[in-house]
What we know:
The chain is of the alpha+beta class and about 425 residues long. The chain has helices spanning about 15-35, 45-55, 60-65, 85-90, 135-155, 170-185, 190-200, 210-215, 230-245, 290, 305-315, 340-350, 365-375, 385-390, 410-420; strands at about 35-40, 45, 65-70, 75-80, 100-110, 125-130, 160-165, 250, 265-270, 280-285, 300-305, 330-335, 355-360, 380-385, 395, 405. An 8-stranded mixed beta sheet has the order 1-5-6-11-10-9-7-8. The protein has a 5-stranded mixed beta sheet with strand order 13-12-14-15-16, sandwiched between helices. Strand 12 (about 330-335), helix 12 (about 340-350) and strand 13 (about 355-360) form a beta-alpha-beta unit. The longest helix has 20 residues, at about 15-35. Bound molecules: histidyl-adenosine monophosphate. Histidyl-adenosine monophosphate binds near residues 83 and 306.
Amino acid sequence: MLTTRPRGTNDVLPEEAFRWQYVEGVFRRLCQDYGFAEIRTPIFEHTELFERGVGEITDIVAKEMYNFFDRSNRKLTLRPEGTAAVVRAYLESGLKSGPHPVKLYYLGPMFRYDRPQAGRYRQFHQGGVEVFGTDDPEADTEVIALAVDFYRRLGLQNFELHLNSIGCKVCRPVLKENLSSFFKIRQKELCPNCQERLEYNPLRILDCKEPKDQEIAKGAPDSLSCLCPSCIAHFEAVLGYLEVLKIPYLIDKQLVRGLDYYTRTTFEIMVADTWAQSSVGGGGRYDDLVAALGGPPTPSIGFAVGLERVLLTMNKQNTPFPAPKNLDVFIVEADKEASRAALELLFFVRAQGLSADKDFLGRSLKAQMKYAAKKKARFVAILGKEEINRQVVSLKDLASGEQKEIFPAEIKEEIGKYKKA
Ligand code: HAM
């Protein structure tokens, strides 16, 4: 137990960590390019926030939350998603009274107690964006375009944008009514969860993972046929803008998503033929959530990407990653007398803006050279009695094998030559 990580969690080891840094870096850069500012919210929140925000009948709230009581008996939950928490922070801070739309992005771990399998974990990581205070279909396009741009910038192949509209307060009751009548006829064939869903929110049945229920749901009435004129106009405008931006999409009339807060546009990005968990990201409009959590009516839209699934897809598709940044220089002590000067040189080199390391185990000269190569250092700077007397260092390029004596002050320039090349 002591050396086993909890089920459904992962360690990101050094050889994988640089890939994470790269993907997170691309996401950050992208959000900044689109005018989003970062927000960091706590990893746990009051349980009620998710119950009210995500919806009590959703799988996430009913079955997957990590709930606990703290020492003062407060009911708290490890966040299963970011949107409700960002809405809470938006309402609690001055952001709600600042200039709109408010465009926020976040990166961080989320927690869901689900059955783990490839691409589905109990602790996973999302990058997400939320836009508050606009019902303009251009904002939908902005968020969808950002999502697509993210996968494109990373070089992902074969991904598809699935798109739907699930209507608003006016037309959703019609959809719910139609779905209710449809499923009631086959109520007894549905799984016990869906029998309950039929009572509270028949839309959730469309999201059920049970194969039998999925089969029954195939013939269900679709949301687009129930839309009111203003939701039709909104959806058509989003499609029009996507066409302007030449972003291909597939209309998926049964895409309802697993969270209750969505209104109008819902979308998901799927990767074909990779593994069972093919959704690498999803989002949609949530025009009623801010008000449901106690704020003023604030139409909003957002999206979140699952970073583990993106990395799995990239590994599976052999997507090229930039080479990891290796150590610029490893300081080698040729003899004991050089140890003080080597330490000084190490910190001098680092202060010049180069990455540098040295041995701390009293290794022999040969073993230090081997260790430097293992650490993938590009150069070694060798210091011994001889060099100290003449106030020089021997700089060896481990790639070419070339070695020359230089003054310590010249190290930055010498190493800079290969960095520029
Ligand atoms: P979601 O679809 O529940 O949406 O999650 C977004 C993405 O997180 C999924 O497409 C998937 O890639 C990843 N994901 C979800 N669950 C897991 C898991 N157990 N293991 C690994 N990856 C997972 C949301 O969370 C919404 N908050 C998105 C949003 C933002 N909507 C509006 N704004």
